[in-house]
């Protein structure tokens, strides 16, 4: 078995530490994977096959409709889990796209292996549930920001949470994520002292 990076163990321990036997089994399901810049990891209409652990790079989950409207919903970057979680865990076709914005390095686990681990070890099932609970808390916080914060407040909050994003992600995606027109975003960046 290849060595599983310490960062994966640290993230697991931060969410819900696994007993040694469960960790030993869980660690075996992760396989290395690399993606090129702009590589589509999952397209709308496809079934989600993998849960990703991001080691390097930035990715985004986004929605795109037949009228050309696009909404960037979430960014993933190291060290975090990534993918389209609802499609993965419900075992259904995705409504969303998951794309590598930069060259990316991952570990990934197949949905079959993940479900087998959840079945074999209740601690892994608790880990997944705790991870989803944290993700839901983040989604609810983001909804408040989108609905109640001014454009400047949204940008400041993003920079507080993830300051590196300004240098690593094209501004058009950040503007879309925040619900700000790209031209206004550029003006706002120039006005705010960071």
From TrEMBL:
Cyclic nucleotide-binding domain location: 36-120
Pfam families assigned: cNMP_binding
InterPro entries: cNMP-bd_dom (IPR000595), cNMP-bd_dom_sf (IPR018490), RmlC-like_jellyroll (IPR014710)
Protein name: CRP-like cAMP-binding protein
Species of origin: Rhabdobacter roseus
């Amino acid at each position: 078995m290849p060595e599983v990076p310490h960062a994966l163990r640290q993230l697991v321990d931060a969410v819900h530490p696994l007993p040694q036997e469960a960790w030993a089994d869980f660690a075996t399901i992760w396989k290395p994977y690399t993606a090129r810049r702009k590589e589509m990891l999952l397209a709308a209409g496809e079934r989600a096959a993998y849960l990703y652990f991001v080691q390097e790079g930035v990715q985004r989950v986004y929605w795109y409709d037949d009228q050309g409207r696009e909404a960037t919903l979430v960014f993933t970057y190291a060290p975090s889990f990534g993918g389209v979680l609802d499609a993965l865990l419900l075992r259904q076709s995705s409504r969303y796209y998951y794309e590598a914005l930069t060259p990316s390095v991952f570990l990934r686990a197949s949905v079959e292996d993940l479900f087998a681990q959840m079945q074999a070890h209740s601690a892994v099932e608790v880990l997944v549930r705790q991870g989803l609970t944290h993700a839901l808390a983040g989604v609810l916080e983001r909804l408040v920001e989108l609905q109640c914060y001014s454009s400047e407040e949204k940008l400041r909050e993003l920079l507080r949470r993830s300051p590196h994003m300004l240098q690593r992600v094209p501004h058009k995606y950040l503007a879309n994520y925040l619900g700000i027109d790209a031209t206004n975003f550029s003006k706002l960046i120039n006005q705010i002292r960071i």
